[in-house]
Amino acid sequence: MRSAKDPNYQKPLTRLIDTAAGPLDLKGHEAEGGYAALRKAIKDLKPQDVQAKVKEANLRGRGGAGFPTGIKWSLIPMGPDAGAKYLVCNADEMEPGTFKDRLLMEQAPHQLVEAMAVAAYAIQAQTGYIFLRGEYVVAAERLNKAIAEARAAGLLGQNILGGPWSFELYVHTGAGRYICGEETALINSLEGRRANPRAKPPFPQIAGLWGRPTIVNNVETLSNVPHILLNGPTWFKELNQGKTSDAGTKMYGVSGRANQPGCWELPMGTTARELLEVHAGGMRGGKKLKAWLPGGASTDFLLPEHLDLPMDFDTIARAGSRMGTGLITVVAEDQSIVSAVRNLEEFFARESCGWCTPCRDGLPWTVKILRAIENGQGKTGDIEQLSKMTRWLGPGRTFCAHAPGAMEPLQSAIKYFRDEFEIGIVCDIDSAKPDVCILPAGLPDITTDRDLAQKKAS
Fold first, then answer.
1. Model pLDDT, residue 428
2. SS (HEC) of the chain
3. Nearest CA to 222 among 105, 99, 136, 141?
4. Domains of the chain, with CATH numbers?
5. How buried is residue 454: exposed, middle or buried, by Cβ count under 10 Å (0-12/13-18/19+)?
6. Low-confidence ranges of the chain (pLDDT < 50)
7. Would you state the pLDDT for residue 278?
8. What's residue 453's pLDDT?
9. Where is the NADH-ubiquinone oxidoreductase 51kDa subunit iron-sulphur binding domain (predicted)?
10. Residue 89's beta-bridge partner residues?
11. Which tens digit of pLDDT belongs to each residue from 82-129?
């Protein structure tokens, strides 16, 4: 059921979502307080005032990096001589295991449209784009309808609400590349170029879309902005119910072998145990949890012993991973960690833009080694080679964060489950150290040079 217009609501992003009834139209959205934040911003506040409120609220980016939104906005040039500026919503959402933005766009399109308008007013952008994953056909239809309704009501377009500020908003559907989740690759794609990342600096806030100052924010991040403006930074900070120092709520989710995979808006700092055992109904078939990714495929695996940690940016980082998008993927006790990682690395290899050598050639090489180990055909030294790859493709070695992100699940899998990798190693008879070879379970031990020679002859 849709809630009443309570200013102290605890789930601002999803309080009006009713998947059975579908999204609210403009009239229904306004009846529930929609576009009040936009009217307040334009009528009562200066753009810098809106920036200050978002900064004070400690809203951190919900796309994965967790960078403070207010600080990001403060880096953009302001004033009458700043010229043309752009606001871009990153709605590509290609991270495996992540589907929170889809829910918000399909079920609350006017919320995002209003959020884009308020954010654009804060940075004085004249044009905005929602860069949408091409497969999100329903989201595209509903967003375009919401934009058309808002434009007809004078909430978008020229001289919004009778004032001097104008803002045009468009939906741009991408061709379906994971790399477009990187903001500069997204900007290149939006310009009609190949989706390769750009060198930074300059950062998009200074030279982004068509060389002009540009802010790129995630769907969930932007969707918080109208609520912060209406209810204040203190209210937003208290939404976490004291669970963490990070403010607000978070769209958390669970995928993988859980009984009830899904997505829920919960206080920031909710534990992974609550997500899995309370909201997702526990592991399917009564299986035990082996490992879990805290926020998409490009994060390090954590163990069952980490389930009680608050799901916030700093706590998960201290545990050796990243919260990322906050939608966890669970791996059951009877699943092969090698197969799981191989599957992820195949995705990353396929989605590499090919711009730099370590990523273009290193990821397929990683997949080749993992596939051999998975099939019980790994060679002595393969695990060590994979460990080297996690460093060679790590931070600072590639043009963007694509390959370093791909290495996170691999490096943690080797760290926690090395024995599963060793099972897939067969003795290399040309090895200088045959005594240390490890065979797949069930095969006879081979520990001498003569035994190795006999096996080779057979």
1. 56
2. CCCCCCCCCCCCCCCCCCCCCCCCCHHHHHHCCCCHHHHHHHHHCCHHHHHHHHHHCCCECCCCCCCEHHHHHHCCCCCCCCCCCEEEEEECCCCCCCCHHHHHHHHCHHHHHHHHHHHHHHHCCCEEEEEECCCCHHHHHHHHHHHHHHHHCCCCECCHHHCCCCEEEEEEECCCCHHHHCHHHHHHHHCCCCCCCCCCCCCCCCCCHHHCCEEEEEHHHHHCHHHHHHHCHHHHHHCCCCCCCCCCEEEEEEEECECCCEEEEEECCCEHHHHHHHHCCCEHHHCCEEEEECCCCCCCCECHHHCCCECCHHHHHHCCCCCCCCEEEEEECCCCHHHHHHHHHHHHHHHCCCCCHHHHHHHHHHHHHHHHHHCCCECCCHHHHHHHHHHHCCCCCCCCCHHHHHHHHHHHHHHHHHHHHHHCECCCCCCCCHHHCCCCCCCCCCCCHHHHHHHHHC
3. 105
4. 26-236 (3.40.50.11540), 240-332 (3.10.20.600), 337-423 (1.20.1440.230)
5. exposed
6. 1-5, 429, 431-458
7. 96
8. 43
9. 338-383
10. 130, 217
11. 899 999 999 999 888 889 999 999 999 999 999 999 999 999 999 999
Taken as a whole, the chain contains a residue count of 458
